[in-house]
Amino acid sequence: MRTNVERPVRTVSVTALRRVAIGAQGYATRARTGSRREVETAIRALSCVQLDSITAVERSHRITLGSRVGTYPRETISRLLGRGRIFEYWAHEACLIPVEEWPLFRPVMRNQHPWHGDVIGQNPGLAEEVRAAVRERGPIASRDFDGKGGGGMWNWKPAKVMLEALWNSGEVVIAGRVSGFQRLYDLAERVIPKEILDAPEPDEATRLRELVLRAVRSRGVLSEAGVVEHWRLRGGTARITPHVDALVRDGVLERWAVEDGGPDVLVPAGTDLDPPRPTASALLSPFDNLLWDRPFARRILGFDHLIEVYKPAPQRQYGYYVLPLLWRDRIVGRADLKSDRSAGTLVVKAFHRETGVRRSAALDDAFERALDRLRRVIGLERSASA
Fold first, then answer.
1. 362-368 average pLDDT score
2. Which of 229, 239, 259, 299 is the Cys-Cys partner for 235 at CB 3.0 to 4.6 Å?
3. Is residue 20 over pLDDT 60?
4. What's this model's pTM, rounded to 2 decimal places?
5. Helix axes 158-168, 124-137, angle to 10 degrees
6. pLDDT tens digit string along 105-137?
7. Mean pLDDT value of segment 227-250
8. Which of 300, 293, 216 is nearest to 255 (CA)?
């Protein structure tokens, strides 16, 4: 039972929450070109950026980062990985994470691989063989190892499974990507800065407190359930509640009540109660940070987020790879898009306005601007309707 916890001293509107959440994402308001430093800064501001292998439009992380920093060189992420500025690991899902957060994930690295179990313990000979190859020839790709796929969803050969297990354990890291999206593996000690590798591992209380704080700061406003979803933390809200309460008592976070009567929310201390309406228009990756907590997106945006890539075509309501259109402080539609790279064209297969959103010249202009910026991020020459 929670005791001696200060109740919220402020009650805010859903409109205010919506504007805080969108404003915290840092969406660009115009076409621009981003530098490697700006990409790194954006990853740090977001706390983590989800990776996904689907390329129907563009890799998810490029859409997510492009909507913040604009067009940026395709090799940027690989170089940031190789120089130990960021690392890949499990966060919300497999994500890009600022390298200084490495110590927060070391406790998780002691867990078995979530898909394959204790691969290292069951195959010590193969583990040593793969370690030796990485030590001698790294950075190295799985294609540099002999063997055939063992079936299953990904059809990975034994060496690839072992590389993933060693990555999961923190022994090796992803030092870049080649041939589109194939991972390069190297020893952590050759990539992650020594001062970070040697940093003390935080205790459980410190770790959870830091994860709570980073989630709330990066998202602007979250419920406790949203914090859990941000990092996919085991144990639910009961695990983080004492640390949330401590952050509120210490004046680092504030707890707000909401006019809709739903669960209280957490914001960084000093957050503006009456933020201005955002002005950006952006096509969002289906895996954008703003949309991770679907019940919260429904609550503050009035948006029922659907990802239909795994549904058979006849069962899809909006399309295969659908990008929500954010305009000002609302999601106003969903664009079913496809990149025709051979023709250099971003194809609009369909655009579905949200219920209650009327067609207008201003809406058409917002969509065209967002479409043009996405086209530039992908590197296509034009956009066109199917």
1. 98
2. 239
3. yes
4. 0.95
5. 80
6. 999 998 777 667 789 999 999 999 999 999 999
7. 97
8. 216
Interior/surface letters 284-293, b for 16+ CB within 10 angstroms, e for the rest = bbbbbbbbbb
CA distances from 196 to 74, 103, 231 (A): 27, 7, 21
Pairing, β 265-268 against β 281-283:
unpaired
Q: What is the percentage of the chain residues whose pLDDT exceeds 70?
A: 95
How remote is the C-alpha of 105 from its chain's centroid? Answer: 16
Structure tokens at 17: 């929450």
Peptide linkage before 242 cis (omega within 30 of 0) = no
Could you tell me what percent of the chain has a pLDDT over 90?
A: 90
What is d(CA 300, CA 17) in angstroms, rounded to the nearest whole number? 7
For the ranges 83-87, 175-179, 318-322, the lowest mean pLDDT is seen at 175-179
**Cα–Cα distance measured from residue 301 to residue 231, given in angstroms and rounded to the nearest whole number:** 21
The span from the CA of 377 to the CA of 284, in Å, is 12
Q: Torsion angle of alpha carbons 142, 144, 149, 154, nearest 10°?
A: 30
Q: Residue 153's pLDDT is what? A: 42
Tokens representing 84 are 């130990």
